[in-house]
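To make this tangible, this section ends with a sequence with its structure tokens:
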Amino acid sequence: MKILKIKINKEECYPLVYNNNIPDYIFLKITILFFKRKSFKTKYSYATTYIYFQKYLNENYNQELDKIIYNKQIDLIIKDIINFSSWLIVHINSQSSINLHLSNIKIILLRLSDLYSNDINTDYIKIQRIFNLQITEIKNKSNSYNSIPQKIIEELFSIINYKSKSNFFKNNLKTRNNLIFLLLFETGIRIGELLRLRIKDVYRHENKFYLQIKYHQNNNEDKRWDIPSLKNFNSQRFISISKNTYLIYELFIKYYRNKTKKHTFLFTNINGNPISKSMIQKIFNEVSIKINYKITPHMARHNFAENMIMYLIEFRGLETERAKDELRLLCGWTNNSSMPILYTKKYFQKIANAHNLKRLNDD
């Protein structure tokens, strides 16, 4: 089995699973009906899991999924899912990848239940219960993450500032790179969202300044081999930025952005083409060497989320649940995303430990 990338229109790309040079109908149907709003990277992840599951079925049942559904045997497969977990351990070394595939197959089986409810006797609750009982609880991402200490951030911006004498980038790249760092730290946007920004996605409304993340109809002007995509439908949003960042944006557009007519992407390389993910990573690597501290674009997102949840609770006086809802909106997470729990947990851990330290000192 293999995966091929097909493009339906300007915005939609799908991974097509081929089995003996024939497209797999079941996976294509699931993808179009249920995963349409997902990014190509997420769809591809589901496709990879689907292939692993098909291999497992062939080895252990000598059948493929369509035959199992036709014979109404899917209930037996779900009950035996612990063996699929063991099979993955043999074939994959990474525990995080195993957890991801188990999470993916759970969702795929739930979607199969939607599609073939008359043929599958297993309902949502039963599938959920079986997974919860038979496999280790799948972590949404990780219980820990790395953000950047405040002193490192201060040192970072003292170097990356386009006016700084310590800025080691070429003159025509200083403003661009400064703006990239400011947008990542001020808004917490994903690297893929940064790469998709068009010139008019940063704008002014009266005396306020914003950045907007949205789907664009003319995405055919993107010629990058690894075209960045939005993670989900909730990724579409607008986020406020500071006046200072907007002024640097105007300076960049007026004097330093390559004046190309091939596209309207905000960030370009020296040849005028849209900047790539690898180039962003290269910039971060070079800055990491300069400050002697490893930083990544995603760490800026962690810092944003940490600072935002603290501000909402401490300075705006919001209840924890309301603060988490606002963070979901700003970060482009789904309404039921558990990601805000990660940041609120760390915030309250700091508060609790500070209180405990005060108690010990008072004694």
User: Anything to note?
Assistant: Residues 134-142 have pLDDT under 50 and may be disordered.
